[in-house]
Structure formats: structure tokens, C-alpha cells
Write a structure and sequence with these properties.
The chain is α+β, with helices and mostly antiparallel strands and about 250 residues long. The protein has helices at about 5-10, 15-25, 115-125, 145-150, 190-195, 230-245, and strands at about 1-5, 30, 35, 40, 50, 55, 65-70, 95-100, 105-115, 130-140, 155, 160, 165-170, 175-185, 200-210, 215, 225. Helices cover about 25% and strands about 30% of the residues. The strands form 4 sheets. Strands 7, 8, 9, 10, 13, 14, 15, 16 and 17 form a 9-stranded mixed β-sheet that branches. The chain has a 4-stranded antiparallel β-sheet with strand order 3-2-5-6. A two-stranded antiparallel sheet has the order 1-4.
Length: about 250
Amino acid sequence: MERLQKILAQAGVASRRKCEELILSGSVEVNGEKVTTLGVKADPAVDAITVNGKPIKSEKKLYLMMNKVKGVITSAKDPQGRKIVSDFLPGIKERVYPVGRLDYDTEGLLLLTNDGEFANLLTHPSHHVPKTYLATVKGVPHGSALEQLQKGIQLEDGMTAPAEVEYHDVDTEKKEATISITIYEGRNRQVRRMFEAINHKVIRLKRIKFGDLGLQQLGRGKYRHLTPQEVKDLLAAARKTHKVHKK
């Protein structure tokens, strides 16, 4: 017997958080009875479970890495008709969704999966999985400004956790600097807001690592399947950082 939201997530319905919302909204039935409270357990091998009247089915678990390009949104659909990440997944028939998000103007490493447990473990705030970006900013921040980011900086939604920050490149002619920054949170537009807080607007932003996983030679707009070892390493990193920060 497993919690219903976990069963739904494992079946690829959505992330665990979204599955909880589906339950609370009355979209889920077990053996013909609507479930609207969390904590209910079921056995997918025995119980008939439906979402919006459709029975769930176990899908082959997929774990993908994409090199997202700028001008693409990490959503299943877009009312404005903009390009979405699934437009760049030829040959993938299963419904996959992003593990966390990269905003419209941000490029780089994006993970996608239909494994809700995997997505939840990597994105849950308590797990602190590191994500590394290259941020090209206007002007060249002084060392004291970067120290603010390293120690944590006050944003409108609270103080950020300490970040790892170092110069990657400086273009004196353009008066720009590219900074490598590793953060351990996943707030909305966090890196951009952190640099804005020290008065250096981000011009270009690219995520180059998720945990220890890097883009390597993956072309822009391309994707590949993660190896079993890469999936294992990501899960191990999430569990490890969770234990470290829990102490």
C-alpha cells in the first residue's frame, strides 16, 4: 500500500505536488469513489485508480537532459503560441515534464522526466541540490559585491542561502563580466534577482550543471537520455545534501 499521490506520481501523471492538487480538487477516484483528502493509501495492483475518469497506467520511466535554447518555455502548452520544450523532443511519445524550470530567456541544462518521485526529490527545497549557472552581467562586479552573494543576499521573498561565486570571464571593451554562480535553492528567477540586488543586470544566463551532471557536448536544442548511473548519482546527491542540511 502506498500513498495515493505517490502512486500517481510514479505512474507519470504529474509531479507529486501536482498530484496532491488533483486529489484535493476531486479529480481522483479509487474503486469508483472520489478521494479529496491526502494520506489515503491504495494498491495499484489491486485498486482501480482514475484521474478525470481515465485509469492510470504504469509508463516506462524516462529521464532526459536537454540543452534548452533561449526563447522556449518550460510548460506543457502556451496560450501565446510560443515554443515549448516538448517541441524539441522528437521521438518521445510519453508525456514528460521539467524537473524545476528555466525561464523563457534562460538557456542550458534542463532535466525532464515522467517519474514524479525523481522530480520531487531533486526539486524539494529541503534537498538543496546544487545548480551552477554562467551569468553574463552588465558591468564588472567588485569582489565585495560577489561576497554579498556568497554570504546570502536579501530578496523580497527572504534571504538567499550562501552561493558559490567566482569570475569566469571579463570583457573590458563591452564592460561585461561572466560570473559562475552555484545556488542551492530554486526560487523563481533567483539568479537574475540576486544580481539585480547588487546592481548588475543579467544579460545572458545559462545553466551548465545540475548536481554533478554537466552539459558536456550536448548541442543547443538537443536532448539525450540519462544513463542509469547518472540517474543514480543525481538521486544520491539529493539524498546526501538532504542529510547534510538536516543535521
